[in-house]
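Chapter summary example: a protein plus uridine-diphosphate-N-acetylglucosamine.
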Amino acid sequence: MKIINVAGARPNFMKIAPLMEAYQARPELEPLLVHTGQHYDERMSDLFFRQLGIPEPDVNLEVGSASHAAQTARIMKAFEPVVLKEKPDAVLVVGDVNSTIACGLVAVKLGVRLVHVEAGLRSFDRAMPEEINRRLTDAISDLLFCTEQSGVDNLRNEGAPDESVFLVGNVMIDTLLKNRAKAEASGILDELGLQPGGYASLTLHRPSNVDDPAVFARILDALEVIQRDLPIAFPIHPRTRKNLPKLGLAPRVEAMKNLRLLDPIGYLDFLKLMSSSKLVLTDSGGIQEETTILKVPCLTLRENTERPITVDVGSNQIVGTDPQRILEAYRRTMDGRGRPPRTPPLWDGHAAERIADILVERLA
Ligand code: UD1
């Protein structure tokens, strides 16, 4: 059974890696890997392939950056001939980026079964491009693999047939558990002169935070205070880096001596950076899950989450972008008042194996 697996943007790579490995033990499955080229910088793409041992893609569509419509259309146009040529039994997409919906749509229009890994997550915030991608991809998928019970419940409420929905755990956590020991050897802390537990890590890239000067400035108000008593390591996403001068915020950031701007860093260095942090501030989805397993407090700089289990059992707090609210949560966290996190069901390092077994059974 031939399966085309799609990866396009940075957060896809840690999700596709354990699947490509799990297929190796199942000779019934013949995997192909397609990279859409949505992310293309060495530090946003190739570095992750090398560190995670992902095989060289069979095809790279090299679509690059563009507006949502142009990027989605380019991916669709480039992916269609690949599906026509390879005639796969299924196309598997992960996550919620533009590559996910673009390739999913191509597959179903050609009558090829579609598999969505990380299905059912909902922020119920339609201003998020990812929410649109998630809803649409789930609506056209034949097999839906969920990381948490809320995903199963959301899909059921939207009318997905029970027999197409599976709670399997989290492939991104498979990758984290596999690489944790290797990441311990990273020299990133020494390189940056940071002490374990003596700094915070920060990531910011959601358009709602970094494309809007008023919101971005509010977040900076909070960071300004925090960095006075705790250094902040800030590997900066290209979108955010470009916006700083565009929004006139570069001088403010430069003036914060303890806010350490870094180029995007590789998976292993970032895992080490997160796991040794006193706390993590982020607007990423995946990092809310990774900090849950690393048992590092996470302050999510958004008004909602599509990953509620990280709040229910983990150490995640949804703190929005109001500086007072961020600082209150920061102080509470520094005081150490918080529940000890628990591990969500099935986040045990074996999600990809469960998916591969179900694919063997269901695609037969
Ligand atoms: C995309 C995903 C988002 C995900 C994020 C992770 C969509 C709609 N968004 O957002 O869900 O959380 O990836 O990183 O799919 N750029 C580079 N080099 C690259 C890639 C991008 O410089 O390798 C720059 C380009 O200027 C581009 C901008 O970053 O315009 C944004 O890239 P894009 O892929 O459009 O969206 P992200 O913000 O990365």
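Key point: The longest strand covers residues 2-7.
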